Amino acid sequence: MPWYPKRSRYYMPCDTDEEIEQGDIFWGVPTLIARHPDLSDHFPQSPTQLPPAETLAPPPLSRVKDGISVHADPVIILPHTCDFYGPEKGRRNRVRLVARIERLADAGIAEHDRVLARSGDGFDHMFFLPSWNDPTRDADDMMVNLRYMTSVDAAYLSRQRRLARLSTAAIIALRRRIAQFFTDYAPAPAELVLADTSGGLIRNDRDLARLGLVAEPQPPPSAMSDTAPHSNDA
Amino acid sequence: MARTAMVRSASLAPKEARLADELAEAIAGGSFSQLTQMLLTSVGRPLLCRIEELRASGLEPGEHLFIAHPTPADTDAQVRRFYEPSSWPARGPRSA
């Protein structure tokens, strides 16, 4: 079975006024790369001849800025929505972690390796994306490059500049890929769905408690001393 | 009461048993079976829907995948791409 959903089930419709969610894709958001200015100023012809980090001193701030390149590719929202959801933490948290989306054809991956990138069986720093304009057109295939993450101000993420929204199955695949990239372990999709469902219940319960519709959870009374498990029959 | 399935006894820790008792008392007329049915309906059914949705999308819910092929070394083109100058337009992007 594949890492990724069918192309026809990768995206879902999304109204402009809907809150921003994990996996939403935007344009007009910069991604930054901090190149070392000694290399970006005098980039040698052969990338394999680059000097090791141990021979390069940390530059002054003014030169750090010289080494920064800013890219205009589309981006995808990486964290779980609960970290930045508009009516909740998003009110105070201005940080949005995004990753750069590149066209597979432009990403510098050798032609014969693109099949591998599309399958998910290799390139674990990538998350495959078909084109949101035409998912069936493989010439426009893209990838999220998890090596190129950037923190941006929430002000960059206008819902009017949202290009696409991942389907629920594709979000599960994204979470799985992120877990793989950071931990070298890919949870089973059912495990992630269960976590999502449980997390939703916990968050809903918290919301209800805050609104005073249910009692705040109380610690169990210390007087209860029965600690041995027992059975409950149906 | 007619049974349509054999339900085995569930081993619960004391606080879990208390929670089950209190929930059953509050919403299921004291019946653990009815409580279980209600939880299966309210939690289990949506969960099953999402699992079926995964299957319909081509993903196998229980599958533990691993990366079968090591990521090939970056090509010179990928390294050069890292050192590319900004693509952000001087006046800012105007449209998608």
Number of domains of chain A: 1
Radius of gyration of chain B: 27 Å
Total number of strands of chain A: 10
- The helix-strand sequence of chain A is EEEHHEEEHEEEHHE
Largest sheet of chain A: 7 strands, antiparallel
> Mean of residue pLDDT of chain B?
86
Quickly name the level 1 CATH class of chain A: Mainly Beta
Shape descriptor of chain B: elongated
**What is the percentage of strand-forming residues of chain A?**
15-25%
Termini separation of chain A comes to: 38 Å
What separation lies between the terminal Cα atoms of chain B? 63 Å
Folded structure, characterized:
The complex is a heterodimer of chains A (about 230) and B (about 100). With about 230 residues, chain A is of the alpha+beta class. Chain A has a single domain, classed as SH3 type barrels (Roll). Chain A contains 5 helices and 10 strands. Chain A has helices at about 35-40, 60-65, 115-120, 170-185, 190-210; strands at about 10, 25, 30-35, 70, 75, 95-105, 125-130, 140-155, 160-165, 230. Chain A starts with 10 loop residues before the first strand and ends with a strand. With about 100 residues, chain B is mainly alpha-helical. Chain B is built from 3 helices and 1 strand. The radius of gyration of chain B is 27 Å and the shape is elongated. The termini of chain B are far apart. The model of chain B is unreliable at about 1-5 (pLDDT under 50). At the A-B interface, β4, α4, α5 and β10 of A face β1, α1, α2 and α3 of B. β10 of chain A pairs antiparallel with β1 of chain B, so a sheet runs across the interface.
